[in-house]
């Protein structure tokens, strides 16, 4: 991939500013862009959210339906989280099968929510080993300005917090929908993903698209409501020292606590 | 990762794990460099029950050409599991898991390879998992790094990988398949032992901030043990049996 000249110029500017502890959009090094969350934007979905993180925009929907459990996990419901970057989000996106970046994005967002144990899947069993409730969380990126990991994660969490799980009762060994008796999901914790970039040994929180292009390495750390770490993913072409990894974990906990307060404002978010 | 009910005692009261190891003891590791005729560099690793083959080609011409970079070479990496490598037959097509692992392995090797010396070329790293056990991505990385060195590709440092994890509320080195399934956390780490940089870090499972620090430190110590085995493999290949 050849770097266009304009990107080289931007990179020089970003590096020069960072030497004085400044960022290209005027933020502090540990400052997250404005986060705006609207829920219930897709009434046909059981839960949904539109999230803007700076100029990155995600629309996320949760669909909930009975399904067969995984063969070795008959005592718990199914949780699957995906992500897709739409071609209208960025001129460089092409249609077709997902590339490795998109697959990594979906897996990291899924892992953060899953490993935190946010949803108590044992409460989603209809008939053990035969029929369980499946929660499918699909993120679509509609506008791109960097840091899709966190934006998709916040959209997923907001959609799950605000979703309603329909009620099924068992008739003739098959689940049958009970109308108008949906209830809140079994939530145990609110996971918050925080992505940090490393540019010339400076750690910045929530990199925007220009910063994303100049990063030497990045790390995404998800923390739960207790302030513990539940998922990590390092990426990029450079490494981190042990001291930098400890600093990133501390930043993820302090920044995560601030973001969690915003997520608690979402309908259903005040329960943890 | 939920803790599932199981009959396995992951850690007994003497601090011995389900496969008889101590908490800071890695599984047996054997690496052999230069095992393939056609590849420019290659390595075979046995890491516990993992059996993995890595082959390196290049620097060579890039196809398709538009992927070439005029400033530096590119690194491509494919991590692939054979259908017979696991208990239930695996579909031979690359899964999403394998595509993600290929990407993180590539990014773990990139900091070590001096790609700026080879503009417009590609170095291809092919990793084939013949038999999989817990920690296959770390074992794959260890073999791939030795294969790169065996190919004579200039490197800033070796890349050594080893996982640590949390089992029965204890941080342990190099978790095996049972500990991965039944344990509380799994953290694969890759490390450049001389430059002291972590080039791969993932985590599944819940750790307190103190446990996170201890887990990274434990894994780094494991990487240093692996580094000695990698050096020995290369010495054995190029200088015959290394002095004891």
Question: How does the SSE layout of this entry go?
Answer:
The complex is a heterodimer of chains A (272) and B (244).
Chain A: H1 5-19, E1 35-39, E2 47-53, E3 56-67, E4 78-85, H2 100-116, E5 125-127, E6 131-143, H3 148-162, E7 165-171, E8 174-183, E9 192-199, E10 202-205, H4 209-214, E11 217-223, E12 229-236, H5 242-264
Parallel strand pairs in A: 4-6
Antiparallel strand pairs in A: 1-2, 2-3, 3-6, 5-6, 7-8, 9-10, 9-11, 11-12
Chain B: E1 29-33, E2 41-47, E3 50-61, E4 74-81, H1 96-109, E5 121-131, H2 136-150, E6 160-167, E7 170-173, H3 177-182, E8 185-192, E9 197-207, H4 209-239
Parallel strand pairs in B: 4-5
Antiparallel strand pairs in B: 1-2, 2-3, 3-5, 6-7, 6-8, 8-9
Helix pairs in contact in B: 1-2, 2-4
Q: Can you put this structure into words, describing what you see?
A:
The complex is a heterodimer of chains A (272) and B (244). Chain A has 272 residues and is α+β, with helices and mostly antiparallel strands. Chain A has a single domain, classed as 2-Layer Sandwich (Ribosomal Protein S5, domain 2), CATH 3.30.230. Chain A contains five helices and twelve strands. Chain A has helices at 5-19, 100-116, 148-162, 209-214, 242-264; strands spanning 35-39, 47-53, 56-67, 78-85, 125-127, 131-143, 165-171, 174-183, 192-199, 202-205, 217-223, 229-236. In chain A, strands 1, 2, 3, 4, 5 and 6 form a six-stranded mixed sheet that branches. The longest helix of chain A is centred in the C-terminal third of the chain and has 23 residues, at 242-264. The termini of chain A are far apart. With 244 residues, chain B is α+β, with helices and mostly antiparallel strands. Chain B is built from four helices and nine strands. Chain B has helices spanning 96-109, 136-150, 177-182, 209-239; strands at residues 29-33, 41-47, 50-61, 74-81, 121-131, 160-167, 170-173, 185-192, 197-207. Chain B is globular and about 55 Å long. At the A-B interface, helix 2, strand 12 and helix 5 of A face helix 1, strand 8, strand 9 and helix 4 of B.
């Amino acid at each position: 991939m050849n770097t266009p000249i304009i990107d080289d110029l931007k990179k020089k500017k970003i590096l020069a500013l960072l030497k004085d502890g400044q960022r290209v959009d005027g933020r502090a090094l540990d400052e997250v862009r404005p986060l705006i969350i609207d829920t219930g934007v897709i009434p046909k979905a059981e839960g949904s959210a539109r999230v803007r993180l700076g100029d990155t925009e995600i629309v996320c929907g949760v669909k909930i339906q009975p399904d067969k459990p995984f063969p070795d996990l008959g005592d718990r419901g199914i949780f699957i989280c995906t992500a897709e970057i739409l071609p209208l989000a960025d001129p460089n996106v092409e249609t077709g099968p997902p590339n490795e970046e998109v697959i990594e994005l979906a897996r990291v967002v899924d892992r953060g929510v899953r490993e935190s144990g946010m949803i108590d899947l044992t409460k989603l069993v209809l008939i053990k080993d035969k029929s369980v409730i499946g929660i499918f969380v699909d993120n679509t990126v509609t506008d791109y300005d960097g840091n899709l990991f966190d934006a998709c994660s916040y959209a997923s969490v907001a959609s799950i917090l605000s979703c309603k799980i329909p009620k099924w009762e068992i008739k003739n060994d098959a689940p049958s929908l009970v109308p108008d008796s949906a209830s809140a999901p079994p939530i145990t914790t609110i996971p918050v993903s925080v992505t940090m970039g490393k540019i010339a040994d400076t750690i910045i929180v929530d990199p925007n698209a220009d910063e994303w292009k100049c990063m030497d390495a990045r790390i995404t750390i998800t923390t739960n409501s207790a302030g513990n770490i539940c998922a990590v993913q390092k990426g990029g072409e450079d490494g981190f020292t042990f001291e930098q990894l400890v600093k990133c974990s501390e930043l993820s906990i302090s920044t995560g606590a601030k973001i969690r307060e915003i997520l608690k404002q979402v309908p259903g978010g005040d329960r943890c | 990762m939920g803790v599932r009910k199981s009959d396995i005692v992951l850690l007994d009261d003497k601090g011995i794990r389900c496969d008889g190891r101590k908490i800071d003891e890695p599984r047996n590791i054997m690496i052999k460099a230069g095992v393939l005729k056609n590849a420019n560099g290659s390595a075979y690793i046995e890491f516990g029950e993992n059996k993995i083959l890595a082959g390196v080609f290049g620097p060579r011409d890039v196809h398709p050409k538009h992927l070439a970079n005029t400033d530096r070479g590119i690194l491509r990496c494919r991590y692939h599991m054979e259908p017979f490598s696991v208990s239930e037959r695996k579909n031979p097509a690359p899964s999403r898991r394998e595509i993600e692992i290929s990407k993180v392995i590539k990014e773990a090797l990139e900091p070590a390879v001096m790609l700026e010396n080879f503009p417009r070329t590609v170095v291809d790293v092919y990793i084939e998992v013949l038999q999989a056990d817990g920690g296959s991505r770390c074992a794959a990385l260890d073999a791939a790094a030795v294969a790169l060195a065996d190919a004579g590709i200039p490197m800033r440092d070796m890349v050594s990988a080893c996982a640590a994890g949390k089992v029965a509320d204890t941080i342990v080195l190099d978790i095996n398949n049972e500990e991965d399934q039944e344990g509380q956390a799994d953290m694969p780490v890759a490390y450049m032992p001389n430059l002291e940089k972590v080039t791969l870090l993932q985590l599944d499972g819940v750790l307190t901030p103190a446990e996170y620090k201890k887990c990274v430190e434990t894994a780094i110590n494991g990487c240093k043990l692996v580094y000695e085995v990698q050096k020995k493999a290369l010495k054995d290949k190029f200088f015959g049996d290394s002095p004891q």
